[in-house]
Write a structure and sequence with these properties.
about 210 residues, alpha+beta, 5 helices
């Protein structure tokens, strides 16, 4: 048995919903089990979770679950947006026949394969390959497999990156605010000095005009 993350990309969205409902009812089949899965869609280059099941709630705002919850949490979050931007240039050059090509970042590959408007099922599967394909036999799909451990490792690294990115952004905001405060202080200092200089000049003229008694 192999532990895989299987991505099934559907040509017809309604079929994705139908297949997912079937999978929720029958998570164990001949030579496979699928303890965790999510139905996701790329809407305006943002990964939205339509439905999910597994260990813990699965949605785009959480990283719960063994693998799929964490994966969709990454894809639906800020890091996923960065991945989509980084791999966007690749999408136009990836043909349907090339969708199974691996690169250094497994999750980046996953992100690059979820095209605008497409609906997919992502599932954590233990199987005798390719037993899980039987779930989608009646539908028009492109099926891609990744080693579950590779996905989990990549997700961990990207989660760490997300934390570092958040910390960096916080520090940059603090630095920007400090700079803005310093600039505002200098502006106020200059304004006060100009007012005092104007007052001193006006006072000197008036005093100069006053004749001794």
């Amino acid at each position: 048995m192999k532990d895989n993350v299987v991505i099934a990309i559907f040509e017809i969205e309604s079929e994705a919903h139908q297949a997912f409902n079937q999978l929720k009812r029958e998570t164990i089949g001949k030579d496979y089990s699928a303890p965790e899965a999510a139905l996701i869609k790329n809407t305006a280059n943002k990964i939205d979770v339509i439905d999910g099941y597994g260990y813990g709630a699965i949605d785009s705002d959480t990283s719960s679950g063994m693998v799929i919850g964490s994966l969709v949490g990454i894809l639906g979050g800020a890091v996923g947006v960065l991945l989509g931007a980084a791999t966007g240039a690749l999408v136009g050059s990836i043909s349907d026949d090339e969708r199974a090509v691996d690169t250094a970042s497994v999750v980046a590959v996953v992100a690059s394969k979820i095209y605008e408007g497409e609906t997919e099922i992502a599932a954590l599967v233990q199987e005798e390959e390719p037993a899980f394909d039987a779930v989608f036999a009646d539908y028009k799909t492109t099926i891609i497999r990744y080693d579950a451990a590779d996905i989990a490792d990549d997700v961990d690294r990207l989660q760490d990156f997300g934390k570092e990115l958040t910390n960096q952004m916080v520090q940059e905001v603090k630095a920007d605010r400090k700079t803005e405060r310093a600039e505002r202080r200098e502006e106020k200092r200059a304004k006060i000095k100009a007012g005092l200089d104007e007052y001193a000049e006006a006072t000197n003229r008036t005093m100069g005009d006053v004749s001794p008694a």
